[in-house]
Amino acid sequence: MIKDFLRYMAYEKRLSQHTIISYENDLNKFSLYLQENAIETPVHLVSPNELRQWIIYLSEEEMAITSINRKIACLKSFFKFCLKRGTIEKDPTEKLKTLKKPKRVPKFIPEDQLNHFLDQLSHLPEDFQGLRDRLILELLYGTGIRRAELIELKSEQIDKKNYTVRVRGKGNKIRLIPLNSTLRELIPRYEEQKLIEFSGNTCEFLIVTNSGKQSYPTFIYKKVKEYLEIFKTIDQKSPHILRHTFATHLLNRGADLNAIKDLLGHSSLSATQVYTHNSIGKLKDVFNQAHPKAEEDIHK
C-alpha cells in the first residue's frame, strides 16, 4: 500500500520529489516502529491506539514538534488514500490531532536601553534621510505597528489635529493609534524635508526610499537592523522586536491587556497574552512593594 500511495502522490497529486521522499521516510519509520514493537498488523490496518502510541514514542524521544506534526500529516494523507481505495472502512487518524507548538516568549529591548537609543537618534542629520530613518524607528516603537502596515501608511492617514494615525491592519481592519509628542513634532519636519528633497513631487506613502518611491520589506528591515546593531545582547534585530518592545513597555507600566490588544490590532486576547511572560519580573517588583507578607519577608 505504501508504494501505491507514493505513486499516487507523485503522479496524481504531482507533489514534489522532496515531499515524496519525506512521506516515504515517515511511513518506513512507522513500519519499523511496528516491527520493533512486535506489532504484526499491516501498516494500513493499524488501530488509532497504535498510531497514538507511536506519537507518544516520538514525543518521549524528544523529537521536534514540527517533525512530529509532519509525520501526522503524512499518516492522515496515507489513510485518506486507503479509505478512498476501499482498503479500510474507517480512517484511524480521524481523531488524531497535531501537537500544539509552545508559544515563544517575544524578545524586547529594556526600557532604559531603548530610551538611551532613541535619545541618540536625535543626533541624526536633519536632512531627508536622517529624519526618514529616525521616523521609521520612532513609528515602529511609538505605535507598535507591523512592518507591512508601516510600508502601506499614507500621509493622509495621519490626523495632525487629533494626533492619531489610522492604520489598516490584517483583514482590512482599521484602528486608531495615538501619536506621542516625539512623533507629533517629527512627522511635520520629515514631510517638509520630503517635499524639498523631491521638489514637491512626493509619493503618497509616508515612508519612501532615497529615490522617492514607496518603501518595501527588505528596505525597512535593513534600516532597522542597521540601527539596532548597537544592542549586542539582542539576537533579533528586526522591525518586529520594536513592536514587541512597545507592547511589553505598555504592560510593564500598567496598561490594560485589552487596550494593548486593540493598539496592536490583535483579533483575540490570546495573541496579546504572550507579553505577560515578559512582565513577570515587573509583577514580582509590584508584589514585593505592595503585598504585606512580601514586605515582612524583605525586613527579615
Automatic annotation (TrEMBL):
Keyword Ribosomal protein annotated: no
Subcellular location: Cytoplasm
GO BP: cell division; chromosome segregation; DNA transposition
SUPFAM superfamilies noted in UniProt: DNA breaking-rejoining enzymes
List of catalytic residues: R146, K170, H240, R243, H266, Y275
InterPro entries membership: CB (IPR044068), DNA_brk_join_enz (IPR011010), Integrase-like_cat_sf (IPR013762), Integrase_catalytic (IPR002104), Integrase_recombinase_N (IPR010998), Integrase_SAM-like_N (IPR004107), Tyrosine_recombinase_XerC/XerD (IPR023009), Tyrosine_recombinase_XerCD (IPR050090)
One Gene Ontology MF term: DNA binding
Major place of residence: cytoplasm
Family: Belongs to the 'phage' integrase family. XerC subfamily.
Protein name: Tyrosine recombinase XerC
